[in-house]
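Quick note —
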Amino acid sequence: MGPRPRRALAVGAVLLLAAGPSALAAAPGPGPSALAAAPRPYSAAHAVASRPGGTPSGAVASSGPGDRGTQLYLQNCASCHGPRGQGAQRGPSLVGVGAANVDFQLSTGRMPASHEVQQAPRRRPVFSAEDIAAIVEHVGTFGGGGPAIPRVAPGNMPAGREVFAANCAPCHGAAGAGAVLTNGWVAPPLYESTAVQVAEAVRVGPGLMPAFPSQVLSDAQVDDLAAYVRQLRGERLDRGGHPLGRLGPSTEGLVAWLVTLALLVGAVRWLGSRAGQ
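Predicted structure written out below.
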């Protein structure tokens, strides 16, 4: 191989190595619009339980010893919360907690808990959407009212960012990535939360989180907030390229730079050895 083709080969190799990090860039994920277009299934039972005033009828009226919700509750919940949700030593009363609270705990997999913990983590739900609706309806027969399951409408993202910054970012972080609180409590990341779960958490206030009734945050503001959290969910995909285990942009950038530099030095040494032959 003559000197001109060899020089062209060297230039091509260096350009290919310099472009290497861009090849590691993560494939674009689903954008906010795609996430918004995938709402959580909303069963007929949810619709019944979420009627204004939280006075279920129809399907709830059929709740009895032989129905699905009663069976699931007695098998999975009664040992801690009591057969009529009156509470026990291992679990609080469910009378008056509301459909939103029960749906939030079950749909995020925090309940039923396999063992007693201070703050149950988010997990894959144990029950199907239909079974969750059945349990929600059965717990509703215990009485007491409580927040209904919110219906979330499309919101205004800039307005939601303001609501999030004023009420959520101090605990969950500006990016919604979660943070450690006091006495072993954590504010969980919001990336897996659906719009309905965001609205439920706002109305219920799970854990140390305060509840925000409609007198504090209107339904429209909750819609805006849910829209902004959906945006955060999409932005967690690192724009700079492959996340490398989400070590952080500075660390990941340094690792990418060191890898690229090592490849360039190796290429130069290889070309130098070839030129000496």
